[in-house]
Structures are given as C-alpha cells and as structure tokens.
Amino acid sequence: MPLAKITPTPLLYVRHGQTDWNLEGRMQGGQDIPLNDTGRKQARRNGMVMKDFLVDLGKTPDDFIFVCSPMIRARETMEILRKEMGLDPNDYKVDERLREITFGNVEGMTVPEMMVERPEVIRMRREDKWGYVHPEGESYKMVSDRIAEWMSEQKDPMIIVAHGVVMRVLRGLLCGYAPAEIPDLDTPQDQFLLWRDGSEAWI
C-alpha cells in the first residue's frame, strides 16, 4: 500500500532553523551544529504561527505526537517551538531515524571548495544526486528508505522537527515526486509544511 494511504493526517513538518553552516553553504549533514540567532527567530516564528494555526484547524497540541531528530539544531528548534506554543519545551519524542543525511568525508565543505578539492564528488552528484552515496556517507535513496520504514510505523497525527533532506524524501514519499525531482525540492526554514488529505501546503 502506498505510504500516503496509511500516513496519519494532518502532519506538520518543521525544518530546523538556520545554523552558521547553513549560512555559509557548508555540507552539514551529520555534524551537530547549533542554531544561530536567525535560526532561533525562525523557530519562534514557526511556534507562534503554529499555535494559531492549530486553532484554525480545530485541533489542539494534544491531538499530535511531537517527534524530533536527535541532532542539536533540530532539538533546539523543537524546544523553542513548543515554548512559543505554551507547552513544556522538553516534552517530545526523539527518533534516531530522523537524523539528517550523512555526507561523509565532504562534510564541512562548501560546493566551491569541493569543486577544487573533490571535483569527482561534484561530478557524480550531478549525474545522480538521488542515488549517489557520499564517501563514507549516505545517498538520498538510503535516507528515503529509513524514513519510509519509520513512517510505516506511525499511527497518530504528528508534528515533526527534522532536516532538509529528510523533508525532501518525506515529501517524495507522500506526494509521489519522481526521485530525480526530490533533491531539488524547497526546504524553507521560516515556514512549516502541512500535509493533509493527500496534499501539501506551506504555512
């Protein structure tokens, strides 16, 4: 059965706020980089908007499971979000499978640096960004497989805080995007995603 047919709805997805590595365009992946001031402001915005949005949906926070990546930038975002919603900042679940893609031995590099130092990685990513396994790391496909496994176990509507690649592959699984399209999907940090009744919208 397609994942979208069994996924509890509604689902709200928040990408973590900005970090200094996001700002610098560095391959962040598995590195545990904290939010910067802009990222904290983005998290506060999403919490304030979400609080009012749940009222518009006719829902309360108790209707949702709050679940988060274990990485510090996601956890900090979740805790700010919940605080802005008037909730206990620390009352949420963590699932290891929501961690970001691992870029392996190119983590910390910018694309211009990779073009000089690791041009073969740039070339192979461009040829097949979906299937390319980063050296000592993962591919988009590998992340999609673990997210599909995780989602297949979920029973309740959720508010998720995680990462850009995780967001892309989840949108691919739910909305039927072609694998070649998924790596280029937008992942804003100053909005959150609503998935409900088979369609998605940015809030």
From TrEMBL:
SMART domains: PGAM. It comes from the Bacteria. GO terms for molecular function: phosphatase activity. The active site is at residues 16, 100. CDD domains: HP_PGM_like (cd07067). Signal peptide: none annotated. InterPro entries: His_Pase_superF_clade-1, His_PPase_superfam, PGM_Phosphatase. Substrate binds at residues 15-22, 73. It holds the Pfam family His_Phos_1. PANTHER family: BROAD-SPECIFICITY PHOSPHATASE YOR283W-RELATED. This is Probable phosphoglycerate mutase. It comes from Pseudovibrio denitrificans.
